[in-house]
Amino acid sequence: SPQLQRKRHIGNDIVAIVFQDENTPFVPDMIASNFLHAFVVVQLEQGGTQGTLYKVSVTARDDVPFFGPPLPDPAIFRKGPEFQEFLLTKLINAEYACYRAEKFAKLEERTRAALLETLHEELQARSQAMLGLGPDDERADNGGAAPGFFESFK
């Protein structure tokens, strides 16, 4: 169903912006996701003669550190470039803060360890090949000669 497809995409994000209609309650647990860690909720306020106003609230999982810019009190913004700048900054900072949450910190550590291990193995293999210290089966294929760095000085 289209709604399930939409949920599948939303669940892969780390931060979600939610536009809330009127006073409908928003419960973050309604969206089951292992990735979503922060929500920025925007609600249209009756501005009257002041133009379009938006009320903003933010919620995040417990292990997500605080991220700025802080919400003013009251957290009501007039539609315009200042609001856009605030919202974009808040969303970007939310994403960076979520990376420091336990789940993402562990993923980053595991990924970094795997990349370093691959880099080490590749460097070791290339160094051995350059020095002519490759495995014995490679030397046998070359007639016993290892065309390495040291052999070029003979």
From TrEMBL:
Signal peptide: none annotated. GO terms for cellular component: cytoplasm; membrane. Keywords: GTPase activation. PROSITE patterns: RAPGAP. GO terms for molecular function: GTPase activator activity. Residues 1-119 form the Rap-GAP domain. Residues 134-154 are annotated as: Disordered. GO terms for biological process: regulation of small GTPase mediated signal transduction. The keyword Disulfide bond does not apply. This is RPGP1 protein. It comes from Oxylabes madagascariensis.
